Amino acid sequence: MNRGGFLPIVVVVAALACVPLAVHSDLVLNFLVTALLLTLAGQGWNVLGGYGGQYSFGHAAFFGTGAYTTAILQTRYGLNAWPAFALAITAGATMGAAIGALTFPSGLRGSYFALVTLAFAEVLRILASVAPVTGAGVGILIRLDPGLHALQFSSRAVSYWFILSLVATALVATRLIERSRFGAWLVAVREGEAAARALGVDPTRVKLTAMTVSAAFTAAAGCFYVQHFLFIDAPIAYGPWISVEALLASIIGGVGTAFGPLLGALMVKTLGEAAKLITGDAPGLDLMLYGLVLILVVGIAPRGVAGIGVRCRTWLARRHIRAGGSTA
Amino acid sequence: MQLSILFPAIVNGILNGALYALVALGLTLVYGVLHIINFAHGALLTAALFAAFYLYLIFGLDPYIALLILTPAFFVVGYVLQRFVIGPFSHGDDSNTLLVTLGLAVIIENGLLFAFRGDTRTVDLSYSFAVVPFAGMFISVPRLVGFGGAVAVAALLWLLLTLTDTGKAIRAVAKEKLGAQLSGIDVPHIYALTFGLGAACVAVAACLLIPTYYVNPHVGNAFVLVAFTTVVLGGMGSIPGALIGGLFVGLIESLCGLYLGESLGQIGIFLMFILVLLFRPSGLLGARA
Amino acid sequence: MTQPILAVEEITKRFGGLYAVREASLTVEVGHITAVIGPNGAGKTTLFALIAGFLAPDHGRILFGNDDITGQPAHRLARQGIARTFQIVQPFAGLSVLENIAVGAHLHFARRAEALAAAEEVAKLVGLEKVLNQSAATLTLAGRKRLELARALATSPKLLLLDEVLAGLNPSEIRDMLPVIRAIRERGVTLLMIEHVMQAVMSLAEQIYVLVEGHVIAQGTPSEVAVNPQVIEAYLGRGAAARLAGGVHA
Known about the structure:
The structure holds three protein chains of three kinds. By secondary structure, chain A is mainly α. Chain A has one domain. In chain A, 74% of the residues lie in helices and 1% in strands. Chain A is built from 14 helices and two strands. In chain A, strands 1-2 form a two-stranded antiparallel sheet. By secondary structure, chain B is mostly helical. In chain B, 75% of the residues lie in helices and 4% in strands. In chain B, the strands form two sheets. A two-stranded antiparallel sheet of chain B has the order 1-4. In chain B, a hairpin with a 2-residue loop joins β2 (131-134) and β3 (137-140). In chain B, α1 (3-34) packs parallel to α5, α6 (165-175) crosses α8 (187-209) and α9 crosses α10 (239-260). Chain B is globular, with a radius of gyration of 19 Å. Chain C has a single domain (6-246), classed as P-loop containing nucleotide triphosphate hydrolases (Rossmann fold), CATH 3.40.50.300. Chain C is built from ten helices and ten strands. In chain C, α3 (97-105) runs parallel beside α5 (141-153). The chains are: A mainly alpha, B mainly alpha, C alpha/beta. The interface between A and B is large, with 43 and 49 residues.
């Protein structure tokens, strides 16, 4: 577990906040916005998958629920974007709690859990592609209305700061979890569920809470997507792309670390852009590279970039012990 | 609902189900022996479909003939993937295997997308629409062939596992890996062999599917969950279970499509999948995972 | 006569056709060290799993003090004061020694700082104070056994179930562990232990139950149990008691 404080978070966020002041290229800012969007989705996945050890293959379920809820509330019910945003996050969190309540008491874990989450996301995708309320095959378009009141930003920089503030909130929340009893219990469940139970930890309750928080973060990412791109449809909302990318960002950057998703998202998006440079807009190459990187990371550096630091420390500690340091 | 509408739906459901069963056979075999859930199974099916398609397009090879080429080819592909990618990169950890097979799935599917674009293609053969009359309705000949093929493959697999030494080795590893190792069985080789068999099954399924099905990079996704549902329903690791599960799933899909409309046919399957996982993960015939 | 802290009444557990534990009864007195011994496969660990809430019995009752705790789940029992260690140690490999123990301490201390402080205190009790910041994965087996103890102790249990805590240790490690176990008893924790290491059982336990094929076949003080013919036969085979009676005292 990390012993990091809040200072690194402040430093990193402040540094990132200064970027639009120095860089005025819309291209770069767009890139960073999508990277931060992915970060937020990944931060959600990381709470359940990284800290909790429950690998979900269907986080799209929460991304899409957040996205569709805010879209529907705004277009069908004329609700203002801000409360819609908040309500949509709640809807996403509720979806997380619902899926968790169905799956965890059954004791599903590992591959089965991954499968079930995948199934849920697929069910939602199919439903969304035919249901009238979600616009069926056509999707939902948000009316262009730039301004703070509608949570739409004509300035890239402001958009960037908005998503950055969401990411910063998630960073702080993650750090708080790390240092809390809930966090200790969550990691205990990941490391050894039976042993955790013997110590008074209720694994179902802990996983359920983690799932809810996880879903909330990813739903927020979905909400931001809608506000930024002003369009949502079933393959975007509930498609496997976001499930895979959120998972990938966390794993590459370092599962179970607060900064992992941020590092991972930046790397994933950089890779994607590089792929586009090489081959133009042919679809598929970027995801192909992601798959390759996933396999390489799992095989060579399972704890991701952030984990390499941890491994170095452990390796050094082991050498110290073998050289005659303290044993127990 | 009139029998004249219901009956064809049932028959078609069963015929479809046979092909689901064939796809699921490979999956359940791999799970039963390696105890891993191969997330790349659907992608392998897509790859096989593309292979069969291009063999037809470029060489004019009839899919039923291409079957003789693709089956051993995919066996080799499967063997190599398990022996040199999945096995080594997972370090034996379940979570890692999950991720590696997911990574493979993503690579294969998107590789196909990248190479061949996303358009849907079909193969038009002289017998694609041939039908035979049966009990007041017409049954599609390719689908009937598919049914026969599925049963034949299942029978062959059963024979392989029961009568040959290799089959016995496979069963030994499935039951007790350490004991098998101590008896001198080369476990990584058996693992790779089994995975190869699974891939070969998928190649057969693709060749049997292609006369009546379509080909695009996302087909794999559609089949992955159906295959998983079949396997879980029939019981992980059970070959008869995969057969019966497949037939059952085909039936459910057909009936759901009938009552709810085409596009929602698949929903019935997924919901059933979720329900089975939640309440009876051991399936109808399988061992508790 | 004070009320026993634990009373197991005619507890039975079947797995299919196999009776792992069959109408077993035992009582544990407050502050005492009670041991359960028996040949391998006798059902001792199953008995522990039943008491600690990892399994629910098919028949019978378990009373903890005045409360009927039959069938209650493990985490709830931990909160009520029953803790256990595992035969095969299960450290939280990704955490440090201190963090491992803190998970146990968090049962009663919600705030991280307090939990860590309590954990440090427990670590001193079992002799792990020098390795607090090491990863649990780097400990030797003896260290991991102590960690199991410390983690369970950190939950401030009234009753601690030790499942073969000495298994796999060499004689000097065993010798070092005995005072730790005694110190735990001094703190007021009642101990129920499964053990194969006879020297430890004989020197530590005040009351011994002998479990064979799921049945309790004998109970008593160490000296009583050691000369019990049925116990001797369970370990050394039929007729052994008679042979021994004629020969050297075992």
